[in-house]
Every structure is written in C-alpha cells, then in structure tokens.
Amino acid sequence: MTTIGFIGSGRIGSQLARKAIENGYDVVMSNSRGPDTLFDLVAELGPRARAATTTEAAAAADLAVVTIPFNAIATVPVDELAGKVVIDTNNYYFERDGHYPEIDNGEVTATGLLQRHLPTSRVVKAFNHIRADLIEADALPSGAEGRRALAISGDDADAKEAVAKLQDLFGFDTVDAGPLTESWRIDRDQPAYIARQDVAELEANLRLATR
C-alpha cells in the first residue's frame, strides 16, 4: 500500500488527503505546529491517517506532497525525501512571501527553487491551480464528458507519469506543461490559473501564458 506524506495540512493538503484515502492510500499528515495540532483532522480522515512531524512524514512517504507557503520551503526535509517523487502545490505570492529576485526577473520558477532545495528528489508541480474546495467538487470519473484537466510540470518523465496517474484517480485529466522551467505557465495571473478547463482549453491557455 502506498503512503502519501503531507508536508503541510492546510486546505489543499487536507483535500488531497481525503482524495488519497478515498482511493486506498494511507496518509501521514504534518505541519509546522506539530502533530498535536492535527488530531481533529486525523480523526476526521479516519484510520488510514496519522499525524507526525514533517521529518517523520517525509520519511514515511512513498510519495510526498509539499503544500506550505512558498517562503517556508527551506524547512522541507531533504534527506528523508531523497529519490522520492515530491508534488509541489505551492504558489509564489510576493505579498505574503516577500520578493525573490530570481523569480521576479524570470531566472527560475518557484518550483525550480524547491527542486534546488531537494536536489535528489523528483519534484513535480501539480494541484496549484485549482481551488481547494473544487478538488472534490470537480472530480469526475475517467472518460466523463467535460472532465476538468490539470497541468503538471517536472523534469523527470517517470515522476510526471506517477503524478498523472494520481490525478486520474482523483478525478482529473492531465496536461503536461513541460519541464520545471515552464511551470510558471500555471502560476497566478496566468490564463490557466484557477480556471475550470478541459484538456483542449488548458492546452490553449498554456500557450497563451506570458511572463
């Protein structure tokens, strides 16, 4: 049985955890405040969920989800995530995170900086351009008419395939937005951000993105 470790258990993290459990995964939830603050969430999620420290969640994970404010990525465990697929749901908001000149001037993407922090992990940007409440509400079975599509971006083909399969299980089609250098195409203020779109519409919106 695959275990998904969550570094961050806020709105996106908790919704993804619910979808994971619906599909037979075990989840280990963590946040910056410690396991004691997650008892209510874990109780709601049920017996397939447990609370842990971020280091413990990373170590237990077969696949990890980093879903914390961008300015906290330096706290993500490195050694425990070595070699693992890591989904990055982060968005860079300079109003909250402060300005990062490398991102502001287009030298690197926000997820590229997480990949730099996790040099031996296989980071894939995903689930950053959908509202938390729509992860459940917009999910549809594979092949359903009007099924919503979500984009992924990453540098490792096998890692992207794993995340695409997860998105399919969770109820979404996948569009490959390319390597991490192109992950800005699903960032805030871009046409694909938050919009409900099918595969063709998402592909078109990715092409319309401007930096």
Describe, in plain words, how this protein is organized in 3D.
The chain is an alpha/beta fold. It has a single domain, classed as NAD(P)-binding Rossmann-like Domain (Rossmann fold). The protein contains nine helices and eight strands. It has helices spanning 11-22, 39-45, 54-60, 94-97, 101-104, 110-117, 134-137, 157-170, 199-208; strands at residues 3-7, 26-30, 49-51, 63-66, 85-88, 122-125, 149-154, 173-176. It has an eight-stranded mixed beta sheet with strand order 3-2-1-4-5-6-7-8, sandwiched between helices. The longest helix is centred in the last third of the chain and has 14 residues, at 157-170. The mean pLDDT is 97.
CATH fold-level label: Rossmann fold
Strand content: 15-25%
Backbone CA Rg: 16 Å
Tell me, what is the CATH class? Answer: Alpha Beta
CATH superfamily: NAD(P)-binding Rossmann-like Domain
* Distance linking N and C termini: 41 Å
The number of domains is 1
**How many DSSP H or I helices?**
9
Mean pLDDT: 97
What is this structure's SSE topology?
Blueprint: E1 3-7, H1 11-22, E2 26-30, H2 39-45, E3 49-51, H3 54-60, E4 63-66, E5 85-88, H4 94-97, H5 101-104, H6 110-117, E6 122-125, H7 134-137, E7 149-154, H8 157-170, E8 173-176, H9 199-208
Please outline what is shown here.
It contains 9 helices and 8 strands.
Can you tag this structure with a few keywords?
single chain; 211 residues; alpha/beta; Rossmann fold; eight-stranded mixed sheet; 9 helices; 8 strands
